[in-house]
Amino acid sequence: MSNVAPTTRAFPVSVKGVLVRDGRVLLLKNEREEWELPGGKLELGEEPQVCVAREITEETGLAVTAGPILDAWQYHIGEGRDVLIVTYGCYSEGNESPRLSNEHQEIGFFTGAEVARLSMPAGYKQSIRSWFARLAARR
Description:
single chain, alpha+beta, seven-stranded mixed beta sheet, 3 helices, 7 strands, globular
């Protein structure tokens, strides 16, 4: 039996959405100069699908519906900063243009080839590839 006290690690859950329009995925540039998927931290008692739709609307002005879970992975941002990322495929509820909120520096739609060259965590790139593949299989 060890005399070492167990350590409890707690970190936030961030729910992100992969929204594709006309073969391009919606991305936002954050303060670390990385591109990321829209979304945010899960509130206590909030359903993940509700969270991702709410966060996307807050960050871009777009109304969406959450579809299937694409992936879940732990993102190590920096020393003492880890986040559990859960990604959902999302469906647009309209054709409005997105607007940039004060939470990000840039907003845009990108092709899969463009995404491959962006500064972005590998987990986001995998979720984007997965959603592109699922959407292509439906055609």
